[in-house]
Design brief:
Structural class: alpha/beta
CATH topology of the largest domain: FAD/NAD(P)-binding domain
CATH architecture of the largest domain: 3-Layer(bba) Sandwich
CATH class of the largest domain: Alpha Beta
Number of strands: 17
Number of helices: 10
Strand content: 25-35%
Bound molecules: flavin-adenine dinucleotide
Mean pLDDT: 94
Oligomer: single chain
Distance between the termini: 49 Å
CATH superfamily of the largest domain: FAD/NAD(P)-binding domain
Helix content: 25-40%
Number of domains: 3
Low-confidence stretches: none
């Protein structure tokens, strides 16, 4: 890591400042070259550790190998009637240890790009740039990108989850299959499913995930996990870690509308699924390529068309939460494994879309389209 020349109490002038060194911010910082830049992030990677999962093609499998915690060719969705099992040769469902990814990017920063382990404060915007303080030092930057988490408005549909990283007493069956969504759980408070990633036959990340407007208390998610584990005959030897999160499923607003937002703050989390990793990677690689040519505007992380389709989907979920399980199961059933991966990655083909549209319950979707 390089060190910018600065004098305490004097303003350090830089070309690019990135506020927040999470998935988007540190990825952008690691791409920068031949600029004077800082990325400002108060927390260490380990303090923010969680699992980031996505469908990786062969190029991404290599690119993210060092931070990969687990990868699977097979994934399943289950309700009381059906189990849909997808098996892909092309895409691996891949879970990264976020701390490893972030630390790897921090180590890769070029000469002239500094990491400041402190919050950015007193941010003042001036055109595309502005000034701020961090760790007692004043900075003035020609360009500022802001990746601080967005505001979540009251009353919006959210994906909220709580999970445990557990060691099991006995080997579990099928450790080579990811359970993306098991809907055989309490559906009385919103669309609810269990998500389970078997990292080995004794190690499992198991999460209770809800799609609803109101959050539950921790006890509720814990009970759901316990019940599901009991039904699968899985006994806990040790709870190694906990993970929780809230991802808005309706449009978000950045903390400061006047600063160019990147990552989740710019709407990178898919409204229909909450997946953001792939959208962030593609947004940031385009932005970095632009910066190297002197173009500083932030590309949208998700195409406007896809965003509109996702909004119709979340509109139907809000109006008809009781249809949630059937919509997800029909989507998975309509597509083969590669089509499903493309669909979740936001790169579905025309024919993938036709299959999904034909599989949907028509009346609620038509009503939602007409309402917009
Ligand atoms: C627990 C969890 C699990 C998730 N799992 C997945 C997944 O499996 N797959 C997927 O695709 N998506 C997942 N997501 C969604 C999304 O990928 C992540 O939220 C991702 O971290 C978003 O990246 P980001 O850079 O936009 O924001 P973040 O990674 O949240 O980075 C924002 C950074 O800003 C910093 N910050 C805040 N205030 C200041 C300040 N004043 N000054 C400087 N820095 C500041 C924060 O410390 C933080 O590190 C998950 C989200 C959560 C919360």
């Amino acid at each position: 890591m390089s060190s910018l020349k600065n004098n305490v109490n004097k303003t350090t002038e830089i070309d690019i400042a990135i506020i927040g060194g999470g998935s988007a911010g540190i990825t952008l910082a690691a791409y920068l070259n031949n600029v004077r830049a800082v990325v400002v992030e108060p927390r260490t990677p380990i303090e923010r550790d969680c699992s980031w999962a996505f469908w990786a093609d062969s190029v991404q499998q290599k690119k993210f190998k060092a931070a990969t915690k687990g990868s699977w060719q097979q994934w399943r969705l289950i309700d009381h009637q059906t189990e849909i099992l997808h098996c892909s040769e092309k895409y691996l469902y891949t879970s990264l240890r976020s701390a490893d990814y972030l630390a790897q990017c921090e180590r890769a920063l070029a000469e002239g790009v500094d990491l400041i382990r402190a919050p950015a404060e007193n941010i003042r915007v001036n055109g595309l740039g502005g000034s701020f303080t961090a760790a007692g030092q004043d900075y003035k930057s020609a360009k500022i990108y802001d990746s601080r988490p967005p505001k979540i408005a009251e009353g919006v549909l959210k994906q909220h989850f709580f999970g445990w990283d557990i060691r099991t007493k006995a080997p579990i069956s099928n450790p080579h299959i990811v359970t993306l969504m098991d809907f055989r759980v309490d559906q009385s408070r919103g669309l609810h499913f269990i998500y389970a990633l078997p990292f080995s036959d004794r190690r499992l990340l198991v999460e209770s995930t809800m799609i609803s407007v109101s959050l539950e208390d921790k006890k509720w998610y814990r009970q759901a996990i316990h019940k599901w584990l009991q039904e699968q005959n899985i006994a806990i030897e040790e709870i190694v870690g906990e993970e929780m999160g809230i991802i808005p499923m309706q449009s978000v607003a950045p903390l400061d509308e006047n600063i160019a937002a990147i990552g989740a703050a710019s709407g990178a989390a898919r409204l229909s699924s909450g997946y953001a990793f792939s959208g962030i990677q593609s947004q940031i690689s385009k932005l970095a390529a632009g910066i190297s040519r002197g173009h500083y505007s932030v590309p949208p992380p998700i195409s406007p068309l896809l965003n509109s389709m996702d909004k119709i989907f979340t509109g139907v979920l809000l109006a008809h939460p009781e249809l949630g399980v059937s919509i997800m199961m029909r989507t998975a059933k309509a597509l083969d494994a590669d089509g499903f991966a493309r669909f979740m990655l936001g790169s579905a083909t025309f024919f993938d879309w036709v299959k999904v549209v034909l599989a949907m319950p028509k009346v609620p979707f038509l009503k939602q389209v007409l309402r917009r």
